[in-house]
Amino acid sequence: MAEVIRMPKMSDTMTEGVIAAWNKKVGDVVKSGDILAEVETDKATMDMESYYDGTLLYIGVEKGQAVPVDAIMAVIGKPGEDYQSLLGGNASVVATAAEPAPAAEAAPVAATPAVDTSNIKAKVVTMPLLSDTMTEGVIHTWLKKVGDKVKSGDILAEIETDKATMELEAYEDGTLLYIGVEAGKAAKVNAVIAVIGEEGANYQALLGASTSVAAPTAAPAPTEAPKVTTPPPVAAPAPVQASNSNGRILASPLAKKLAEEKGIKLAEVSGSGEGGRIVKSDVDNFTPKAAETKASASSAPVAVAVGVESFEEIGLTQMRKAIARSLAESQSTAVDFQLTMEICMDKAIQAREVMNQASPVKISFNDMVLKACGVALKKHPNVNSSWREDHIRRNHHVHIGMAVAIAEGLVVPVIRFADTLPLSVLAATTKDLGGKAKNGKLQPKDWEGNTFTVSNLGMFGIESFTSIINNPKNESCILSVGGIKEIVAVKNGQFYATSVMKVTLTCDHRVVDGATGAAFLVTLKELLEEPYKLLV
């Protein structure tokens, strides 16, 4: 029996994944354990294994497309096996007949057809959701007519939404068999507006089976002029710039996405695909032209500022979406407050020099802070706790999250049982996890289960700062660590030089009171000011 392959939940915060690459194609023989695809999650790019033996019968998600967790991505079964029944009644199938919709959009669900349409070699084209507020679109112009040959990537029509006039791409090869909405007429989102398939295909049966066919007598378009120059929202596909003979650039969706991320103008890229179409490799290998020399300043006695206003829209990565969700949740749930303390680091500096003479791995000040936090958390278990709505979970183990900045945002790999690790072993662990984080090689076991987090910006010269609690479901505190600064202090009327470091503890007041957080910081200060205590 055929088996559906769904988007797996690869991290505790994942809501959708992006197909970075398919390693198998329809018709390939698949064995259990084979890598079907590479999936970009909010934390890393990971391999998706097959758990079934058989033939890959169906792929419903294009490379570069975002897929909600549990949505159907593919089907594996016996060659020639009928799998359509597995797709037809399921609301989580990812639609491919229209442009990719935002994650919040539910995939269009067609009513159960009265007749069997599985053997009809044609596909309906529906009005896509091109903005978060769009309810209908107006066909501004049809660029193809009934009977024209269509290839995947061809521009079928220009659609005027409530935000902009945008292009509708074809995702099927075939002949344009049917146009259901005239130019200038409106159609509801998800209504069938066209059909593409083999010549002679019984597309009328497809229309009869659809509950949302756009009537040719749809409401007329608004009388105002089309907003052809209004930039689209970030969530919507970017409009293609004019450059070729028909005023449009032919480029694959992934090439467009990469060009947008890199700030490359597609008009400057030469396409190597069929018909001059720009593909991913063209964008990867593109070298920008040298910037033109600016015009000389005006000789007028009054100086005039000359320039061009410009900006770029940067799409959200899965990681950036997850960071936004997590921090918004933290701010809306945790009742936080901050405590700041200054720690003398003179003895820690001396101790680190001595320890690094014997340690096989270089020990950093951050390693010493992590170790001190581990020991202090054992002494103050209330800080090593989290809010669970109807109870508080007090952890007996110490798993410390270490915030690591990477190009895509922020990840928090976890040092497990940090209180038990010798400093040299802890240093090796942090370097290994930091390297994995920067190379996108972290796995779920590397980032799950933190009971406390440390964020260090001291290496950037930041004196002090406050952090937002990383994950209120798992922890109640996060420690912000500033840089070590040499200052002049006074003791017994005498001036002397000393090195200090400021730390700020952000606490969830539902779990940790002020006195509890302060007691934790006192212990942390004692451990770093007398670092030999970290070794016993």
Q: Into which percentage range does the β-strand content fall?
A: 25-35%
In CATH, the topology of the largest domain is named Chloramphenicol Acetyltransferase
Spans of 5+ residues with little confidence (pLDDT < 50)?
Answer: 95-113, 216-245, 291-300
Q: Based on the structure given, which CATH architecture of the largest domain is correct?
A: 2-Layer Sandwich
The biggest sheet amounts to:
6 strands, mixed
- How would you classify the helix and strand content by structural class? alpha+beta
Note the total helix count.
10
The level 1 CATH classification of the largest domain is: Alpha Beta
Which value, in Å, is the CA radius of gyration? 29 Å
Please, what is the CATH homologous superfamily of the largest domain? Chloramphenicol acetyltransferase-like domain
Label this structure with key terms.
single chain, 536 residues, alpha+beta, OB fold (Dihydrolipoamide Acetyltransferase, E2P), Dihydrolipoamide Transferase, 4 domains, six-stranded mixed β-sheet, four-stranded antiparallel β-sheet, 20% helix, 26% strand
Descriptive report:
This protein is of the alpha+beta class. It has four domains: 1-94, RNA polymerase II/Efflux pump adaptor protein, barrel-sandwich hybrid domain (OB fold (Dihydrolipoamide Acetyltransferase, E2P)); 95-227, RNA polymerase II/Efflux pump adaptor protein, barrel-sandwich hybrid domain (OB fold (Dihydrolipoamide Acetyltransferase, E2P), Beta Barrel); 240-287 and 306-315, Dihydrolipoamide Transferase, CATH 4.10.320; 318-535, Chloramphenicol Acetyltransferase, CATH 3.30.559.10. Helix content is 20%, strand content 26%. The protein has ten helices and 26 strands. The chain has helices at residues 84-88, 203-209, 253-262, 280-284, 318-333, 346-358, 365-379, 423-438, 444-447, 514-529, and strands at 3-6, 16-22, 29-30, 35-40, 45-49, 54-59, 66-68, 72-77, 122-126, 136-142, 149-150, 155-160, 165-169, 174-179, 186-188, 192-197, 336-344, 385-387, 392-394, 399-402, 404-406, 409-411, 414-416, 452-456, 477-491, 494-508. The strands form seven sheets. A six-stranded mixed sheet has the order 17-26-25-24-20-23. The protein has a four-stranded antiparallel sheet with strand order 1-8-6-3, with no helix packed on it. It has a four-stranded antiparallel sheet with strand order 5-4-2-7, with no helix packed on it. Helix 7 packs across helix 8 and helix 7 packs across helix 10 (514-529). The radius of gyration is 29 Å and the shape is elongated. The protein starts with a strand and ends in a 7-residue tail after the last helix. 38% of the residues are buried. Mean pLDDT is 82; it is low at 95-113, 216-245 and 291-300.
